[in-house]
């Protein structure tokens, strides 16, 4: 069994006028991420890896989760393709995960993350993944390469204002 935890980056600083890739988290984002990480920790999942877009807001969200989950920040795996990824890219990234990882958290961006979550055919639809939302599924597979075609089971959906 493999578990995939899909996390949209926390709230970013919309007053930032630099390059979108460099957009940092705002104060609410910096406070929401540890709260959501604690909620995830309370679910007692053993997370084997954090995989993130390298964009600053996603990277900072992943780092804040890593701190709460007691995962060294230097172990976060950054995949450039997750920056504004399409749902197809999400499937490619997931199917290429190492099979020794059983539970993986992926940090990325809208709109692709919402499209991906809704493409999982779990019977649970999300109009829009809010910032710092966490959506989890499991699949009865032993290899991530089988994820795309596997039947997925919805585990939970949570977000800061819930």
Task: Give structural attributes.
6 strands, Rossmann fold, 20% strand, 162 residues, alpha/beta, single chain, six-stranded mixed sheet
Question: Your description of this structure?
Answer:
By secondary structure, the chain is of the alpha/beta class. It has one domain: Phosphoglycerate mutase-like (Rossmann fold), CATH 3.40.50. 29% of the residues lie in helices and 20% in strands. The chain has four helices and six strands. The protein has a six-stranded mixed sheet with strand order 3-2-4-1-5-6. Strand 2, helix 2 and strand 3 form a beta-alpha-beta unit. Helix 3 packs across helix 4. The longest helix is centred in the first third of the chain and has 16 residues. It is globular, with a radius of gyration of 14 Å.
Distance between the termini: 28 Å
Q: Which CATH-level-2 architecture?
A: 3-Layer(aba) Sandwich
User: In total, how many beta strands?
Assistant: 6
Rounded to an integer, what's the Rg over CA atoms? 14 Å
CATH class, named: Alpha Beta
Shape: globular
**Helix content range:** 25-40%
Domain module count:
1
CATH topology: Rossmann fold
The number of helical runs is 4
Low-confidence runs: none
Mean pLDDT: 97
């Amino acid at each position: 069994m493999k578990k995939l935890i899909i996390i949209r980056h926390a709230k970013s600083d919309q007053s930032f006028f630099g390059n979108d890739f460099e957009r940092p988290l705002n104060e609410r984002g910096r406070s929401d991420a540890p709260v959501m990480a604690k909620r995830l920790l309370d679910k007692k999942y053993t997370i084997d890896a954090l995989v993130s877009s390298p964009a600053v807001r996603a990277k900072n969200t992943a780092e804040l989760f890593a701190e709460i989950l007691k995962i060294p920040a230097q172990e976060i795996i950054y995949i450039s393709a997750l920056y504004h990824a399409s749902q197809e890219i999400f499937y490619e990234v997931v199917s290429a995960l190492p099979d020794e990882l059983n539970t993986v958290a992926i940090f990325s961006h809208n709109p692709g993350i919402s499209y991906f979550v809704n493409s999982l055919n779990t019977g649970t639809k999300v109009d829009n993944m809010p910032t710092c939302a966490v959506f989890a599924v499991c699949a009865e597979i032993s290899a991530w390469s089988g994820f795309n075609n596997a039947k997925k089971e919805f585990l939970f959906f949570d977000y800061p204002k819930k």
